[in-house]
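pipeline/complex-builder :: batch 7 item 3
reading input block
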Amino acid sequence: MVSKDVTVSNERGLHARPAMQFVDVANTFQSDVTVAKDGLEPIEVDGKSVMQMITLEATKGTVLNVKAQGDDAEAALKSLVELFETKFGEE
Amino acid sequence: MSAYRVPPTACHLAYFASMEIKKGIGVSSGVVICTAVVLDAEDLLIPKRLVEAEQIPREIERFDRAVADSIEDLGKLKDSLTLHAGEDVAGVGGIFDFHMGVLRDKVLLRQITDEIKKNRASAEYAVSTVMRRSANTFLAMTDRYFSERVKDIHDIERRLLRNLIGQKHEDLLHLTSDVVVIAHDLLPSQTAALDRNHVKGFASDVGGRTSHTAIVARAMGIPAVVGLGNITSEVSGGDIVIIDGTRGVVIVNPDAEQLVEHREARKKQLELGKELADLVDLPAETLDGHIVSLQANIEFPEDVDDALTQGAQGIGLYRTEFLYLASDTEPTEEDHFEAYANALRRVGGRPLVIRTLDLGADKYTTAMAQSPERNPFLGDRSIRMCLHDIPMFKRQLRAVMRSSVLGDVRIMFPMICTIMELRQAKMVLNDVMEELEDEGVPFRRETPVGMMVEVPAAVIQADQFAKEVNFFSIGTNDLIQYTLAVDRTNEKVAGLFCPAHPAVLKLVRDTIRSGARNSISVSVCGEMAGDPLYTLLLLGLGLNTFSMSGPDIPEVKKIIRSTTMEHARQVARRVMSFDSERQVMHFLREETRKIIPEAF
C-alpha cells in the first residue's frame, strides 16, 4: 500500500468537477483507492465513488490522505497526486 | 433538525431505521400512528412496497434500465445545450457530467441494489430511501457549496423515479390502506383530490396555524403538524410515523416505548372525544339560559355530514374556492349548482351561508396564477377579482340563486372594503335575478345577503354597511392580517399574528356592537371562533353565532354550557381594559382553565 498527503488548493475546494476528474482517473486503475480526511470527524471514503468524494466536504486548504492498494498502486497514486498538484486544471 | 451525521465510510452502507423526533407547530389536535406517504413538489408518491422474492431480479433489472435511461437523458440534454451555446460558457456541461458520474457511481448503485435485495424493496422505494439518506448527509454539511449539492441529489432522484414510474403518478385518490401524508406544503388541488377515508394525518415542511393544510386538517378532524423544516427529506414512504397534533411533534420510526406512550395518549383522546360527543344533541346554552348558535365552516358538500354529527346547527361558511381549484378549468354554472344542491340536501333545512369566490394570492395554484403580483395580499383578489370578471362572477351567483329554492341559502361577499364594492356586487346579483326571472327559473328573491368583515375599513364604516346587508360575518384571519400588517404564512413574522391583540379585539367588539345597533346578526367565522381560549370573550361581547371547524364545536359548546352570560360579560369587560396581547391571553387562559382544566 502506498499513500501521500495532499492539500486542496482549488478556490471552491474539491467540488463536483474535480471530484469527477479524480474518480475518473481512479477508475482507470485496478488498485483500490481511498481518501481520508482528519479532523473532528475523521472519515475515509472510496476514491472511486463520486458521491463519497463529495461527502468529504474538502474545502480549500483541507489536507487529504490518498491511499492506493493493488498491483498498479504506485502509478495510481502518482496520477492522482498530480491532479492536486495541477489544481485539476483550474486557475 | 437532525444533528447526527451518517459517516460516509463503509458503515455508511448499513442503514438502521433510527427514531427521529421533530418539533413543529401543532395545528390540528389528536394523535395518529400510521404509515407515511411522501409527496414532493411533483406529487410523486413513493409507497413502500415489498416485492416477492422471485420478483427481486425483475426490480433490479428495472432499476438498471432506469439508470441507463437517465444517463442517456442527461447525455442528450448536455449535447443539446452545448450545441446551442457552441461552447460551454456557463460550465453547465459540468453539472450533467457530475449527474452522470453519480449515476455510474458503483458504491451508490450497490447501495440501491442491496436495498432491493435485502429489504425486498421495490426499485422506486429503494431509490427514494437511499437517495434521501444521502441527501441528509449533504444537509448536515457546513460549507454552503457542498450542502447545496443536495439539490443535485434530489434532481438525480427525481430523474430516476420518473424513468422508473414512466410519468405515471400515483395519486391520493385511490388509497387502499390508512396513511398519513407528508408534504412540503399541501396545495389546495392536492387536498381536493385525496381519499378522505384513508388519510389520517398531515405533516408539512412549511405553514402556520392558518395555513391551508391546517384548515383542511381541522375540517377533517385529523391531526396535523406544520412548520417542520425538512420533514419531506427525512421520511421515506412506508416509514411508520406518529403525528401528535396536540403537542406539535412528529416521530419518525418510533421505538417501542414511544409507540406505547402514544397509543395511550390516543386512547385518552378518544375517551375525551366520547365525553364531548355526549353534548352533540344539547343546545349551546349558558347556565342562565342564553342561547347561541354554533355552526360549521366547510370546504366540500360532503363535510356537512361530519359537521352535523359534531353538533353544528348550520353551515356558517361554505368556502367555494375548491370548485375552482379542484380542476384546471373554471367550473361551469352546473358544477356550482350541483355542489350547492348537494350541500343543501345534506344540511336539511338548516342555514347554509355560501361565500362567493374568495381566491387570494395565498391560494393560487401555479396553473391559475396569471402574472405574479408584487403585493398579492393587497392585490387583485377575492371580490375585486370577481368584479373584474363579471361573466365568471355571474355564473356563480346564478347557481347560488337557483339553489335558493332548495333550502335556507344565504349569500356572502368576501373582502368588502368600500361601499361601492358592496353596491356593485349587489347590482350584479340583481342582474342575475332579473335574468332568472326572464327565463322563468325559480329562485328566492328574499335570499339574505351578507358580507365578510375582514378589513379594518369595513369595521370603521360598519354602521353604513349594516344598512345595506342582512348580516355580518367577521373573518378574523384576514382581519388580523390586515390590522397588524402580518403575513401569517411568513414564518419569520407569524408570531406577530395574534387574535388577542387589543386592536383586533376592539374591531371585533365594534362590529358586534354595530350589528346590534342596526339589528342585523353578526357571526365570527375565523379560527378565533373555534379556539376555546376566546369563547368566553366572544360570548361576553354579545356574539350570537360562532362558525368554526366541526371538530371544535363540542369543546366550545362545553365552555358555553359551563358558564353564565353574567360571568362572560365580566370576562369581556376585563379583557377590553388590557393593553397587551400577553395580558389578554394569560387572563383568558386562566379563566378557561377554570372551566375545562384539560383544555390547555
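note: The interface with chain A takes residues 5, 7-9, 12, 91, 94-95, 97-98, 101-102, 105-108, 134, 137-138, 141-143, 145-146, 149, 152 of chain B (CB under 8 Å).
queue -> next item
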